[in-house]
């Protein structure tokens, strides 16, 4: 079962798992907040799962997990701006409901639980790369939710319920449900739409990145890793040492692929506290066959051609449906979502209730 399969990373994870495990039943579970935010796809990405629950994981009945071998838990309020706008809900969905889901999964006999955690839990750090044993310094509600979830997952893990928390670097790359609220994707979008890259900071913050295809490979590894490789509970930085970049280096790399781009740096910006370098040595040691493969230049080129295929030309994309916060706020403003981000629409809201009655 893959929760949050209808987001940015999900479609890529589903593709990877269906190619690697053609005989396995893949179940998707998603609220569908961004169902309508498709990019350039002929067919809904959900056609690649065997069963799709269009539903809220806050109310996931245990029976749904019966017979499931592994849960890949992606569903979340997935960045800092949304976490700031919906603080309570971020705590509730990302932390409380995630632990409830894990508990139900364990009771239902699920044997593997893979959690999409984040390197953002290192927060502000000096230039020395953070390892898994470095102190955590979560600066935002989003980062805190990941710290709390990891802590409680560790208590649930045992030989029968093996948990892997993948502390992912910031994602990048082309997807059927592209996000442009991620640093590299934003730079490529600016370069394609208006030949301009606007760096909101002074360009110096460190940000490790990972391509979503490499995230999907890491998830596959986590599903099948031996307990002897990392233990019953493992939290591991997931990315590669070569992909620790300063934000200005990313902009320059984009300008190498897309010529005549103007890069503007905000010299007067307040220092961006979210700066951290990360050591990915442990992941390299544990998963030598699953190391990130896609290069930065390939990632930029794929984003460029993906955007061009969409005839993307909106210089105001930071206010578009490719920004997760904009979509949630809009759906709430027009009354489709409640204050607590539940659908008002009967079918979506009642799916689990009617299934339970059946
Ligand atoms: N994108 C990144 O840079 C990055 C980096 C590290 C970790 N992660 C983590 O990876 C996961 C996936 O990220 P993404 O970029 O695909 O995010 P996304 O926002 O594109 O997708 C999240 C999905 O979760 C679903 N969801 C949210 N609340 C739900 C609920 N209550 N019930 C059911 N579904 C719900 C949404 O509808 C959405 O489809 C998240 O947990 C995120 O924190 C992402």
Brief overview:
With 358 residues, the protein is of the alpha/beta class. It is 37% helix and 15% strand. The chain has helices spanning 10-20, 80-85, 87-108, 141-156, 183-194, 212-224, 247-257, 281-286, 296-309, 324-333, 346-357; strands at residues 2-3, 27-30, 51-54, 70-73, 112-118, 162-168, 170-172, 196-199, 206-211, 233-238, 244-246, 262-265.
Please characterize this protein's 3D structure.
There is one protein chain. The protein has 358 residues and is of the alpha/beta class. It has helices at 10-20, 80-85, 87-108, 141-156, 183-194, 212-224, 247-257, 281-286, 296-309, 324-333, 346-357; strands at 2-3, 27-30, 51-54, 70-73, 112-118, 162-168, 170-172, 196-199, 206-211, 233-238, 244-246, 262-265. It starts with a strand and ends with a helix. Bound molecules: nicotinamide-adenine-dinucleotide (NAD). Residues 4, 6-10, 30-34, 56-58, 74-76, 78, 93, 116, 118, 168, 170-171, 179, 182, 324 line the site of nicotinamide-adenine-dinucleotide (NAD). Nicotinamide-adenine-dinucleotide binds at residues 4, 6-10, 30-34, 56-58, 74-76, 78, 93, 116, 118, 168, 170-171, 179, 182, 324.
